[in-house]
Amino acid sequence: PGPIKEYSKAEVAKHNTVKDGIWVTYKGNVYDVTQFVEQHPGGDKIMLAAGGALEPFWSLYAVHNSEEVKEILQEMHIGSLKYDMNEDVIDIDDPFARDPQRHPALMINSLKPFNAEPPPELVVDSYITPNELFFVRNHLPVPVVDPKTFRLEIEFSSGKTKKFSLDDLKKFKEHTITASLQCAGNRRSEMSKYKPVKGLSWNFTAISNARWTGVLLRDVLQSAGVTLTNDEIKHVQFEGLDKDPTGAPYGASIAIEKALGPFGDVLLAYKMNGEELPGDHGFPLRVIVPGVVGARNVKWLSKIILSDIESQSHWQQNDYKGFSPSVDWDSVDFKKSVAVQDYPCQSAICQPKNGSEVHRSEETVVVKGYSWSGGGRDTIRVDVSGDGGKTWKVATLQKEHQTPYRAWAWSLWEVELPIPADGKKMEIICKSVDDSYNVQPDSVQGIWNLRGLLNNSWHHIAVDVKE
Ligand code: HEM
Ligand code: MTE
């Protein structure tokens, strides 16, 4: 054999289609896997790594941790990866330069600030979303925080304050809850197809599910003597350590009833899926307000203010509010609308992909997705249609047991639909029902709003039926 060929990351990245060849890297080596892609037992998910590293994917799918897989890979070896000394250079003028590393599979909506969602085909593979794939919604650069000097400050209605280190907080009883977070802008891209809206163009996976560990906000507040009989306290305001160019922190608030109520389960979380909170998800502390829209789940939490008014932050007052379809940017008055808190019921189809192909000879197609409702309401049913809504089949739900009124986590679901005997397209729709018997609206028309929030209309996809 001749000398080992060396390739730069940029050269490898160009090889990400069957036409140009599909290359991947693993532990400093480069492999041409073009011929293997069709035979991959895990299907076309392998394409997520095309032109890049295998490690972040193989850490999610442990089946690759075997000699057999390493041997398959070895046969496709074509060279090694060239070290690029420019890779580690940090631009000190860029406020986002110290943002954390991210998983390459995330579908990016905006790089700075970082906003991204996981690919739908990976979402339905795990009831608990791996930390690396959990959707990220940042409004500002990620603050870098030293956990040793970190203090959470609580400002009481008297104006007095009290500071807690992480160790002080950890003296309270530890709780773990499984809760899904969903951005109010999830599925905005579908809403803007009906009529343009303003905001990041989220697809349908700005939602994820994790186990959060921390202490109950209720326990911490009660230890300081705060009770529901304190009439002057109506809202609990949260501030993050991320600040906008005017120095104003990200902020939001929730009602005191949610914070102190026996079934509120509001958590000051320092762990996500058993690991320390990742930088993008609020290290070292965030609030988890289960059942409530993502925006109130303040990350990098540094201050809690007990107040008779809501947070006066931009995000509580002039964003994350719903409007009638009749309201436009000339007539909108944010003061007249109520801030979104509990999420309505939601569901979407993650598999098959919109626009993909099925073969009539296969007779059936397996459809998978997620469903969730806010306010502690559980999904009780998901109906799925393979003929544009003429007939429906009830999906099988995969979920853990949840206590009534405290169902904070999503359900994944699955159903096998018959492929129709004729026609070139199959229109697949899903819709869910929660335990208050709320249902999703059938179209965007009646819920359209200028900010494109809370699109929970029936989710439609179409697949091509091949002979
Ligand atoms: C399964 C090889 C890349 C996702 C497998 C299996 C092999 C394999 C041999 C079967 C393992 C078993 O059942 O014991 C490879 C090779 C790759 C590669 C050689 C790279 C060249 C990827 C990537 C993904 C992926 C990038 C991305 C998500 C999967 C999944 C399965 C699987 C989900 C499991 C399928 C099942 O549960 O039946 N792969 N793989 N693979 N692979 Fe890969
Ligand atoms: N908290 C801070 N401090 N800064 C933010 O930008 N974004 C909010 C919320 N908390 C945000 C924040 C929004 S809009 C959402 S949807 C969730 O965080 C997203 O949480 P995640 O990035 O952990 O998925």
Q: Which runs of at least 5 residues are low in confidence (pLDDT < 50)?
A: none
Compute the average pLDDT: 96
Q: Helix count?
A: 9
Bound molecules: protoporphyrin IX containing FE, ligand MTE
Total beta-strand segments: 27
What is the CA-CA span between the terminal residues?
Answer: 47 Å
Overall 3D form: globular
Structural class by helix and strand composition: mainly beta
**Largest sheet properties:** 5 strands, mixed
Helix content: 10-25%
Taken as a percent bin, the fraction of beta residues is 25-35%
- Integer tally of domains: 3
Query: What is the CATH third-level topology name of the largest domain?
Result: Sulfite Oxidase, Chain A, domain 2
Question: Compute the gyration radius: what is it?
Answer: 24 Å
CATH superfamily of the largest domain: Oxidoreductase, molybdopterin-binding domain
Folded structure, characterized:
The structure is a single chain. Strand 6 (107-110) and strand 7 (115-117) form a beta hairpin. It is globular, with a radius of gyration of 24 Å. With 467 residues, the chain is mostly beta strands. The protein folds into three domains: 6-81, Cytochrome b5-like heme/steroid binding domain (Flavocytochrome B2, Chain A, domain 1, Roll); 152-336, Alpha-Beta Complex (Sulfite Oxidase, Chain A, domain 2); 346-466, Immunoglobulin-like, CATH 2.60.40.650. The two termini are 47 Å apart. The mean pLDDT is 96. It has a five-stranded mixed β-sheet. Strands 10-9-18-13-14 form a five-stranded mixed β-sheet. The protein has nine helices and 27 strands. It has helices at residues 9-14, 55-58, 67-74, 120-123, 166-169, 188-194, 217-223, 256-260, 314-317, and strands at 6-7, 16-17, 21-26, 29-32, 77-81, 107-110, 115-117, 136-137, 152-155, 161-164, 174-182, 207-216, 235-243, 249-255, 267-272, 275-276, 286-288, 301-307, 346-351, 357-359, 364-372, 379-385, 393-394, 396-398, 411-418, 425-434, 459-466. The longest helix is centred in the N-terminal third of the chain and has 8 residues, at 67-74. Protoporphyrin IX containing FE (HEM) binds next to helix 3.
